[in-house]
């Protein structure tokens, strides 16, 4: 039941991303003005930008996007929990990290399993919005969002809510943003076509790397 609830969360996130794309012609950037690359950057995440498309327009209106995500003026809004961003399998005492609402789902910046990810080859990039035309591998072959449960900076408003996959699923050291969950044997993921899929810990690493890229010219299929 918890895994099904997590899958439903990603389904809702997928609808939000697709509605955003319908409105703007592209998906949201993975993050904007990420520190320290941008001194005093605003550092907002994709998960903040799609709030109006997750039936959270009132919450989005409380955010002053002209100020940094952690500006005092934004702290009340940032403290709100958003049900679609919380996996029920993740153990926690409260739905906040450092006073800000959590998320168990991160955007895919690319992969470091078989490449340096330079330039980044995922769908969720810094200061760049991509659309369907940028998915050369096909939307059904490209993972855009995956579980990164209980990571210390996993806050839905925080632009650090994305990662490039570098390890096997549930194998990363604690300090790495990577695919991890509290489901047995794998993680839930969201493809660019809006479909959800459970990626197992036994997946071949080269195939996992291929799913994290938008333009590797792979023809792998998740099924």
Automatic annotation (TrEMBL):
Residue ranges of domain DUF1559 in the record: 1-159, 160-206
PANTHER family referenced in this protein's UniProt entry, alphabetically: GENERAL SECRETION PATHWAY PROTEIN G, TYPE II SECRETION SYSTEM PROTEIN H
Protein name as catalogued: DUF1559 domain-containing protein
């Amino acid at each position: 039941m918890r895994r099904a609830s997590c899958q439903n969360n990603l389904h809702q996130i997928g609808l939000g991303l697709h509605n955003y794309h319908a409105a703007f012609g592209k998906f949201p950037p993975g993050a904007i003005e990420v520190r320290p690359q941008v001194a005093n950057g605003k550092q907002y995440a994709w998960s903040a930008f799609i709030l109006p498309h997750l039936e959270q327009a009132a919450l989005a209106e409380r955010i002053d996007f002209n100020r940094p995500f952690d500006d005092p003026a934004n702290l009340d809004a940032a403290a709100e929990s958003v049900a679609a961003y919380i996996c029920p399998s993740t153990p926690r005492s409260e739905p906040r990290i450092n006073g800000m609402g959590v998320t168990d789902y991160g955007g895919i910046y690319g992969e470091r399993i078989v490449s340096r990810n330079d330039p980044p080859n995922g769908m969720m990039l810094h200061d760049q919005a991509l659309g369907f035309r940028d998915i050369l591998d096909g939307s059904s072959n490209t993972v855009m969002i995956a579980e990164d449960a209980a990571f210390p900076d996993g806050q839905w408003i925080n632009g650090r809510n994305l990662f490039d996959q570098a390890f096997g699923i549930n194998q990363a050291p604690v300090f790495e943003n990577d695919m991890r969950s509290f489901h047995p044997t794998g993680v839930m993921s969201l493809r660019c076509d809006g479909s959800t899929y459970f990626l197992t810990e036994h997946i071949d690493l080269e195939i996992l790397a291929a799913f994290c890229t938008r333009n590797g010219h792979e023809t792998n299929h998740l099924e």
